[in-house]
Amino acid sequence: MAESIDHLVEGCRRGQPAAQRALYERLGYQLMGVCLRYCPSRAEAEDALQLTFVKIFTRLDQFRNQGPFEAWARRIAVTTSLNLWHQHQQRGPHLDTEEAADIPHPDGTPFDQLSAADVVQLMNTLPPGYRTVLNLYAVEGYSHAEIGELLGISEGTSKSQLSRARRLLEERLHQQAHIPHYHD
Questions:
Q1: CATH architecture of the domain formed by 99-184
Q2: RNA polymerase sigma factor 70 region 4 type domain location, by residue (predicted)?
Q3: What is the distance between the alpha carbons of residues 4 and 19, in angstroms, rounded to a whole number?
Q4: Which residues contact 40 (CB under 8 A, 6 or more apart)?
Q5: How far apart are CA 101 and CA 111, in angstroms?
Q6: Assigned fold of 1-93
Q7: In the chain, which segments carry CATH 1.10.1740.10?
Q8: How far apart, in whole angstroms, are the C-alpha atoms of residue 14 and residue 43?
Q9: Sign of CA dihedral 91, 95, 97, 98
Q10: What are 50-94's pLDDT values in tens digits?
Q11: How far is it, in rounded angstroms, from Cα 151 to Cα 89?
């Protein structure tokens, strides 16, 4: 039976290499997905993942059990990846299309012929600021106030960039799906 996250965290606090390895194996795939959404390349996402785990292991004393450990670890992955993004703003964050599964949409909408890789490619065409706000809000679940704090922008700018990102993505989805698009 797999050990609980809480048990692994306690082992990590005691400096047990087996617990650290097990925690890495348990959360690595999920956190790599987070890193890939913000880092400009797979290699940098891998670096961000390694830095994330270094921070997790060295800052365990800051985890106060005030929510799921996974959420705390995800926040570290996001901020670590965003730091890399800030260093490479000209290129911007992107999702690696090779990382996306080729799964059609299950609800039978006109977009059902689009794979996850197609959606990822469309997201990668968004300007970096829009793409980052969209990821933080829609994927990571951050509030506009939190996004503003993370990116050094106002809450209103975050809302505006999200709205523009959604509009651009919708337009590009319609173009990709070759269906007519009507503005309200």
A1: Orthogonal Bundle (1.10)
A2: 119-169
A3: 11
A4: 84, 85, 88, 91, 92, 93, 94
A5: 16
A6: Rna Polymerase Sigma Factor; Chain: A (1.10.1740)
A7: 1-93
A8: 31
A9: positive
A10: 999 999 998 888 888 888 999 899 989 998 888 877 666 544 444
A11: 11
Q: Report d(CA 158, CA 151) in Å as an integer.
A: 9
